[in-house]
Design brief:
Helices cover 38% and strands 14% of the residues. It is an alpha+beta fold. The protein folds into 2 domains: 76 residues, Ubiquitin-like (UB roll) (Roll), CATH 3.10.20; 82 residues, [2Fe-2S]-binding domain (DNA polymerase, domain 1), CATH 1.10.150.120. The longest helix is centred in the C-terminal third of the chain and has 28 residues. InterPro entries: 2Fe-2S-bd, 2Fe-2S-bd_dom_sf, 2Fe-2S_ferredoxin-like_sf, 2Fe-2S_ferredoxin-type, Beta-grasp_dom_sf, Diverse_Oxidoreductases.
Amino acid sequence: MGKKYPVQVKVNGKEKFAEVEPRLLLAHLLRDEFNLTGTHIGCDTSQCGACTVMLDGRAVKSCTVLALQADGAEITTVEGLGSKEELHPVQQGFWEKHGLQCGFCTPGVMMAAAGLLQENVNPTEEEIRDALDGVICRCTGYQFIVEAVQHAAELIREQQKQTSSLENVTAGGDE
């Protein structure tokens, strides 16, 4: 057993600490140390994207990041997107538009989609397909996934309109 080093990260809004070997991958830290098994490991070679998480606001494949590189970072896993009571728009889109089949790749696809929609709430189909290019789904032809992301984008835009209208009313604007 090699020397271990401290790592402190904020995962899904909670501070987490671990002592890790320098070779430990972020995917394994999340799964094995923090028991966040929604981050799937499909290939361990960065080809499949099943391990995609948000790292400081960017979608990354967690099998390509050493745990030590994430020290001090803010991480969101699929478990942190939403809750059973209040689904994230991406989760709602996948639910309503049947954007999954076996479900193995789904956490990675959702995180890649969330990364896209954080940057662009009105993506074209081509932009969605480009953003999801690094995540492999072996069960489907991606059409339902694309439709789920398009629906999630609609839900986000609706939420933004409602928030904007509410802010306008509370600020004394048009009622």
